[in-house]
Amino acid sequence: ITAVGLPQARKASLARFLEKRKERVTST
Amino acid sequence: PAAAQSRLNEDTLQQRLQALIEGARETWTYAIYWQLSYDSIAGGGDGEGTAFLGWGDGYYKGEEDKGKSKKRCSSVNAVEQEHRKRVIRELNALISGGAVAGAADDAGDEEVTDTEWFFLVSMTQSFLNGTGLPGQAFLHCRTIWLSGSGALAGSGCERAQQGQIYGLRTLVCIPSDNGVVELGSTDVIQQSSDLMEKVNTLFNFNN
Questions:
Q1: Does B175 touch chain A (CB under 8 A)?
Q2: Whole-angstrom Cα distance, residue B146 to residue A10?
Q3: DSSP SS3 for B131
Q4: Which of A9, A17, A24 sits opposite B120 (nearest CB)?
Q5: Pairing of strands B170-176, B179-185
Q6: In whole angstroms, what is the distance from residue B163 CA to residue B122 CA?
Q7: Which of A20, A25, A14, A22 is nearest to B121 (CA)?
Q8: How far apart are CA B195 and CA B207, in angstroms?
Q9: What is the sign, positive or negative, of the torsion defined by CA atoms of B76, B82, B86, B92?
Q10: How far apart, in whole angstroms, are the C-alpha atoms of residue B172 and residue B144?
Q11: A10, B19, B170, B182: least surrounded by Cβ within 10 Å?
């Protein structure tokens, strides 16, 4: 997987995943 | 209006996936909705198109036991782990509008677990109707429930085998009107009609 290869339509899902991951990491 | 409608659909999917997982008695690690689409180019432009299941949306809950997930990273060598972290940093930069990709970031420095990676890579995948676990579930209109590492490894399906390598012990595909709901867990979860009924209620948009 590369950042540039990700389809535009999936960016919303990706943004949510990354945001929640940040929350998980900072809460530990 | 079309963009707003699309956003609405995304939000609705996300809410339904979240409701499915957070409302379940079992501990699911993630849920993905594979959406039925048609590729008119691959279909030769005859108007029919080739049916395939592509990423609709996904909800990643993660693993409750942090110790277990950390352990599941330990099998990954340092080079692979560094690669995962770099990809996460690049994706963060891409999403946040082109900040410096190599910049230090709490989330980018944290080890990327096997199930996080499996979920992330899933965003790039799609399945022709009838192929792969989601494609088989949709074509035959039947639930596929693989429970236990042996069932995943011996399924003969690449996605299930890959999931088993990444620590999944249950992988389920439940067909709906226009797609397939996939759930994965690092726990062994036995088949439940309750879950299938919930999917029927939440994901059959035609009704």
A1: no
A2: 27
A3: coil
A4: A17
A5: antiparallel
A6: 10
A7: A14
A8: 18
A9: positive
A10: 6
A11: B19
Residue at B156: amino acid letter: G
Tell me whether residues B88 and A13 touch, CB distance under 8 A.
Answer: no
pLDDT at A28 > cutoff 80:
no
DSSP H/E element including A16: helix A11-27
How far the first Cα of chain B sits from its last, in Å, is: 23
Residue among B117, B124, B126 with most chain A CBs within 10 A, to mutate: B124
User: Which is higher by pLDDT, B106 or B163?
Assistant: B163
Burial of B180 (0-12, 13-18, 19+ CB in 10 A): buried
Q: Does B93 touch chain A (CB under 8 A)?
A: yes
A28 contacts chain B (CB < 8 A): yes
Summarize the confidence of residues B162-174 as an average pLDDT.
97
Residue B191 has pLDDT above 80, yes or no: yes
Query: Could you give the ipTM of this predicted complex?
Result: 0.84
Tokens of A21: 């991951």
Q: Do B62 and A6 touch (CB under 8 A)?
A: no
Q: Side-chain half-sphere of A6: how many Cα atoms within 13 Å?
A: 23
Q: Can you state the angle between helices B78-95 and B114-122, rounded to 10 degrees?
A: 50
CB contact under 8 A, B106 and A14: no
